[in-house]
Specification:
Strand content: 25-35%
Protein name: Extradiol dioxygenase
Number of helices: 3
CATH topology of the largest domain: 2,3-Dihydroxybiphenyl 1,2-Dioxygenase, domain 1
Distance between the termini: 30 Å
GO molecular function: dioxygenase activity
Number of strands: 9
CATH class of the largest domain: Alpha Beta
InterPro entries: Glyas_Bleomycin-R_OHBP_Dase, Glyas_Fos-R_dOase_dom
CATH superfamily of the largest domain: 2,3-Dihydroxybiphenyl 1,2-Dioxygenase, domain 1
Largest sheet: 5 strands, mixed
Keywords: Dioxygenase, Oxidoreductase
Number of domains: 2
Oligomer: single chain
Structural class: alpha+beta
Helix content: 10-25%
Radius of gyration: 16 Å
Length: 135
C-alpha cells in the first residue's frame, strides 16, 4: 500500500532554497535537512530539495535546466484568497518570480503560478468548491 508522496527536486544552493521556502511560509520537516538537502512540508506531502550533485548521484541522469523549460507544474491549495495573496507577496520578497498576480479563474479558482530560485514552477490555488461547475 502506498503511504506518502515525496517530491524530489534538484537545486543549485540548498541553503538559499531552504531560506526561500521558509520565507514563503513552508515548514521544515523534522528530518532530511543536511548540507546537501532540505526537507519541507506542504500540506501532507514532503518536498526534498537536493543539491544538483547529490540529486544526480541517485537518479543517474542529467538534470534539466528548469530556468529554460518546465519539467512539471507542482500545485498546492490554500485556505483563502488572502493566503494566496500573502504567498505571492512573499515569493517576490524571497527572490522568486510570478507569471501573474493572483487572480480569479473560471469563477471558482483563485491563484497564481510562480518560479522558485531554480526555476521550478509552482501553482498556488484557492478553490471555492461551492462554485465549481457540475461535470
Amino acid at each position: 500500500m502506498m503511504k506518502q508522496l515525496w517530491l524530489n527536486l534538484p537545486v543549485k544552493d540548498v541553503n538559499q532554497s531552504r531560506a526561500f521556502f521558509t520565507q514563503i511560509g513552508c515548514q521544515l520537516n523534522t528530518h532530511g535537512n543536511t548540507e546537501t538537502s532540505a526537507s519541507i512540508v506542504i500540506g501532507g506531502s514532503t518536498v526534498m530539495l537536493y543539491d544538483e550533485k547529490a540529486f544526480k548521484s541517485f537518479v543517474n541522469n542529467e538534470v534539466s535546466d528548469s530556468q529554460k523549460c518546465t519539467e512539471m507544474l507542482i500545485s498546492f491549495d490554500v485556505e483563502s484568497k488572502e493566503e494566496a495573496d500573502e504567498i505571492a507577496k512573499n515569493v517576490l520578497l524571497a527572490g522568486g518570480r510570478t507569471a501573474h498576480q493572483p487572480k480569479e479563474m473560471d469563477g471558482w479558482l483563485y491563484g497564481f503560478v510562480f518560479s522558485d530560485l531554480d526555476g521550478h514552477r509552482w501553482n498556488v490555488v484557492y478553490m471555492d468548491i461551492s462554485k465549481m461547475p457540475n461535470n
